[in-house]
Write a structure and sequence with these properties.
Layout lengths: L1 H19 L11 H10 L2 E6 L6 H12 L11 E5 L2 H6 L7 E6 L2 E4 L7 H14 L5 E2 L5 H5 L10 E6 L4 H17 L4 E6 L4 H6 L7 E6 L2 E4 L7 H8 L9 E2 L6 H17 L4 H33 L1
Parallel strand pairs: 1-2, 5-7, 6-7
Antiparallel strand pairs: 1-3, 3-4, 6-8, 8-9, 9-10
């Protein structure tokens, strides 16, 4: 009890000292116009998003961020910055302040915890150690089945896959929280993403009609992510057991070469029927069918004539 009282007293003192200007924070501000270029120029960047309004908890988080040590065995320096631009914050799914986002080669991970005490600092350093490498795997049409083995038995483990498009602001906003969930469960669950703009066949295979859409692939079955809340807590809760509340469906098999051929033919016919050359196309097809029927009739007639001769 005494420890908690002391911690609260220290935090209160920090708020007073920072707000009155008696204690100066040395973490520099990062402006909106320099934000993207700075991320691209630095491998590891830690950004504290704080409200531009009065925010005592933001001040404490800022002070604790300044005291946060470099994780052991990490040789690349983590650069710390402060951002007070709410438009920039919103682009990375930040809706509450303070919020901390860790950028690894500009790829964001939204931290789920607080930074209000010394215990929080220790927990935060542990998270940083786990989060140094990007945990979300990018899947493509030529690697999806090989890596996930979704329809053949899933010997590579279970996969939580986010289908998204870079053109959607909502999709981009949830990627930092999705990445944080991937970090938290990376020792027992695979998290991945699929860009449906460049992987249209996967979008067709899994009938993706809106973005974002997430699906859990587990032991040959598929579970649609229904909560539609893409914070890290909800995502981790879903893969940790909440998926049992969702009806599973068989994983659609990967299209065979014959399936792709017939699909291509059907698509070609559909395109021709919708074009200005529709009548010419119908005439060619009709003529081709008539020719095939005539050839078939000729072959059958010839075989009937040859049978009596052989007898």
């Amino acid at each position: 009890m005494k420890v908690k009282v002391v911690c609260k007293t220290i935090n209160l003192c920090l708020i007073i000292l920072i707000s009155t200007g008696l204690v100066k924070c040395t973490i520099p501000q990062l402006d909106k116009q320099d934000f993207t270029s700075f991320l691209n120029e630095n491998s590891l960047v830690l950004v504290l998003f704080k409200s531009s309004r009065d925010c005592p908890t933001c001040d404490v988080a800022l002070e604790n961020l300044e005291k946060t040590p470099q994780p052991e065995l990490l040789h690349t320096e983590i650069v710390k910055k402060v951002v007070s631009d709410e438009e920039v914050a919103a682009a990375f799914g930040v809706t509450e302040y303070p919020a901390i986002v860790f950028y690894r080669k500009a790829y964001p991970a939204l931290y789920h915890g607080e930074l209000q005490s010394e215990d929080d600092v220790a927990e935060f350093v542990d998270w940083l150690t786990k989060a140094v490498s990007v945990a979300t795997i990018e899947l493509f049409e030529d690697s999806f089945e090989h890596l996930t083995q979704a329809s053949s038995g899933a010997t590579t483990g279970d996969w939580m896959v986010l289908f998204y498009t870079p053109q959607s602001e909502e999709c981009i906003q949830i990627l930092p929280a999705f990445e944080n969930a991937a970090i938290r469960v990376k020792h027992w669950m695979n998290f991945a993403k699929v860009n449906i703009e460049t992987n249209k066949k996967l979008a067709e295979r899994f009938k993706i009609t809106k973005c974002p859409t997430a699906k859990l692939f587990k032991q040959g079955k598929m579970y649609h992510y229904e909560p539609q809340k893409y914070d890290s807590h909800s995502l981790v809760s879903f893969v940790d057991g909440w998926f049992r509340n969702v009806k599973s469906v068989p994983v659609p098999r990967e299209p065979s070469s014959f399936d792709l051929l017939t699909e291509s033919i059907a698509l070609y016919i559909k395109e021709q029927m919708a074009s200005d050359n529709k009548l010419a196309f119908v005439a060619i097809v009709t003529g081709g069918v008539a020719l095939l029927v005539a050839l078939l009739a000729l072959v059958l007639r010839k075989s009937k004539v040859e049978r009596p001769k052989q007898e």
